[in-house]
Every structure is written in structure tokens, then in C-alpha cells.
């Protein structure tokens, strides 16, 4: 999740790709993050991996934005801290979910956030979304149903359900950011830092509770080169690199353009899962994946033009 800054004039066409390419790369690494998380995490190491993942980047964020952090008001700290609690729930659901399902399913199901958010906003404001958006939402939901069936109609896996809940939690996070007045004027870097700090505090507390899995220290010691490479990929590229590219890009292009490029994340998740993870969708699942991608793309355009 990111905070998009105000719109600025579009760059010249011949230079647009120079801005688009790093943003598209963010979508690629986010798509690859599901397979990376799946490769280094088990049911017993979820909390420990989350502690390590964000403890690596948090000092960098604090150092980069220390002056602006000190300028936050008490109300902004409380608001950002509350958002951090929601964010911790999102990461827990996503990470436990990807352990129990495929990276392809995880990336496609989480894209339903793009459908859930306008629906939830419409429910809160009482403004009915356009018919085109409702049709797109129905298409996306039908796609997820097919995607999670594999070779036949069975009960969705635990991981599929957890990722679906993560999509709902992401929606709640977006709505909370738009409705908590104290954080609306906060600096994006400071807001992200406080949220991640709050999430890390939750993960650290959970790690200290007996029965929640291996300790972060034990997991760190047990990691080999492959696991550390995966962890650093999640920390450096999927968190630090992604955040700073978004901050850089929205100063050089439009928020809608950035959103459109980042919306390709589920496509890259499917591509990486199939090409590098050896995952197989089958004919029914492949058709469902196409419906999800088509529905979320259509729904995003319908919501933007409403």
C-alpha cells in the first residue's frame, strides 16, 4: 500500500518510458514477492520472517525521514499507529495464506482489493457504483471461484481463504487511510515508517508468545544463502525500492498512470509462479485467471470514469 501524491503534468512522450519502467519493475517485484515469501516461509516461521523482513528496512526509513518523523503531531502518530495495526493483520494473512496456497493464486486473489475498495467506499458513502463496475466485480468473483477449483469444484484451500481475507483487510486499510483525518496531511515517508514500525512491534510481541513458532533469531541463524537472498529481496526490493520509486514517480507522472502500471502486479505473480515456481493452473484455473485479470482491469477503468 502506498500514498499517492497530487497530480503533476505528464512527462514528454519520449521520456515517459523512463518513468514507467521503474514503476513497472515495482509491479514485477511485487508479483514475484509471493513466490519469494513462499520459498522462505513455513507455517512455523511466518511471524519470525515478518520480524526479520521489516526490521531490516525500518532503520533505513527512520534515518531517511527522521526530521519529518519528529514533526508529526501526537494525533498523527496515533492515526498512523492504528493503521500499522491493520497493516500487521494484512501481512499476517498474506504470509500465512501464501504458505497454504500457490503464489499464482495469492497474487490473483489479492487483486480483488481493486474491486472490493470501490464497493466498500460506495457502501460507506451511499453512492451506488456504475453498472459497468458491478459487472466487472461479478466477472472477477467468478474468476476467483474458477481459479481456486483446480480440476473440479471443491472447497477452496485455507490459503485461498486467508488471501481473500487479506484482500478485505487491504480494503479496510485504504478506507481507514482516507477517513482518519489526522493522517491525511501527513508526509508519506513518515506515515509509512510509523505504520511499519507499528507492524514490526506487533510481530515482535507475537514472536515472544510461546507457541507462535520459531524465534526470529533461530530462523536467522538457520537461514542459508538462498533464504537470505529471498529475505533481502522482500526487504530491499519489495519494500524500500518499491516505496521510493512510487514517491519518485508521482512527482514525474500522474497518480492514475502509476496506479495502472502497478495494477499489472497479479499478471506478474501468475507469470513468476508458473515460469519459476513450476505451478500449474489447468484449463479451469487458467480461464479463471483470465477472468480475474479482465474483471479487475475493467473495474479499475469503470471506477476511474465514474
TrEMBL record:
Top-level taxon of the source organism: Bacteria
Key words, A-Z: Cell membrane, Membrane, Transmembrane, Transmembrane helix
Q: Which InterPro entries match?
A: Diverse_Substrate_Transporter (IPR051258), EamA_dom (IPR000620), EmrE-like (IPR037185)
Primary subcellular site in the record, as a coarse category: membrane
Q: Where in the cell is it found?
A: Cell membrane
Q: Does the keyword Iron apply?
A: no
One GO cellular component, as annotated? plasma membrane
Note one Pfam family from the annotation: EamA
Q: What transmembrane ranges does the database entry give?
A: 21-40, 46-67, 79-99, 105-125, 132-152, 228-246
Please report the stretch or stretches of sequence annotated as the EamA domain: 21-148, 158-296
Does the entry feature the keyword Transmembrane, yes or no?
A: yes
Q: How does the UniProt record describe the way this protein sits in the membrane? A: Multi-pass membrane protein
Could you say which protein family the record assigns here?
Belongs to the EamA transporter family.
Which PANTHER family has this protein been placed in? Answer: EAMA DOMAIN-CONTAINING PROTEIN, OS03G0707200 PROTEIN-RELATED
Q: Could you identify this protein by its name?
A: EamA domain-containing protein
Q: Where does this protein come from, organism-wise? A: Streptomyces purpureus
Q: What is the lineage of its organism?
A: Bacteria, Bacillati, Actinomycetota, Actinomycetes, Kitasatosporales
Amino acid at each position: 500500500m502506498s500514498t499517492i501524491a497530487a497530480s503533476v503534468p505528464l512527462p514528454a512522450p519520449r521520456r515517459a518510458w523512463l518513468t514507467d519502467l521503474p514503476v513497472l519493475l515495482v509491479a514485477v517485484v511485487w508479483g514475484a514477492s509471493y513466490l519469494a515469501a513462499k520459498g522462505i516461509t513455513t507455517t512455523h516461521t511466518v511471524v519470525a520472517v515478518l520480524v526479520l523482513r521489516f526490521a531490516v528496512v525500518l532503520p533505513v526509513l527512520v534515518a531517511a525521514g527522521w526530521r519529518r518523523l519528529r514533526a508529526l503531531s501526537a494525533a498523527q502518530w496515533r492515526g498512523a499507529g492504528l493503521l500499522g495495526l491493520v497493516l500487521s493483520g494484512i501481512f499476517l494473512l498474506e504470509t500465512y495464506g501464501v504458505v497454504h496456497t500457490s503464489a499464482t493464486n495469492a497474487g490473483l486473489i489479492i487483486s480483488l482489493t481493486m474491486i472490493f475498495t470501490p464497493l466498500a467506499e460506495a457502501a460507506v458513502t451511499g453512492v451506488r457504483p456504475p453498472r459497468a463496475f458491478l459487472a466487472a466485480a461479478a466477472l472477477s468473483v467468478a474468476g476467483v471461484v474458477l481459479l481456486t477449483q483446480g480440476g473440479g469444484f471443491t472447497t477452496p484451500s485455507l490459503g485461498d481463504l486467508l488471501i481473500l481475507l487479506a484482500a478485505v483487510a487491504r480494503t479496510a486499510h485504504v478506507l481507514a487511510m482516507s477517513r482518519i483525518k489526522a493522517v491525511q496531511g501527513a508526509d508519506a515517508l513518515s506515515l509509512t515508517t510509523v505504520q511499519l514500525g507499528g507492524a514490526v512491534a506487533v510481530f515482535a510481541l507475537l514472536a515472544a508468545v510461546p507457541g507462535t513458532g520459531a524465534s526470529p533469531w533461530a530462523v536467522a541463524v538457520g537461514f542459508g544463502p538462498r533464504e537470505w537472498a529471498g529475505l533481502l529481496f522482500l526487504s530491499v526490493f519489495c519494500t524500500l525500492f518499491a516505496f521510493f520509486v512510487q514517491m519518485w514517480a508521482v512527482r514525474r507522472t500522474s497518480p492514475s498512470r502509476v496506479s495502472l502500471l502497478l495494477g499489472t502486479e497479479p499478471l506478474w505473480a501468475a507469470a513468476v509462479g508458473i515460469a519459476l515456481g513450476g505451478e500449474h493452473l489447468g484449463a479451469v484455473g487458467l480461464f479463471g485467471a483470465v477472468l480475474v485479470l479482465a474483471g479487475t482491469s475493467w473495474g479499475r477503468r469503470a471506477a476511474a470514469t465514474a
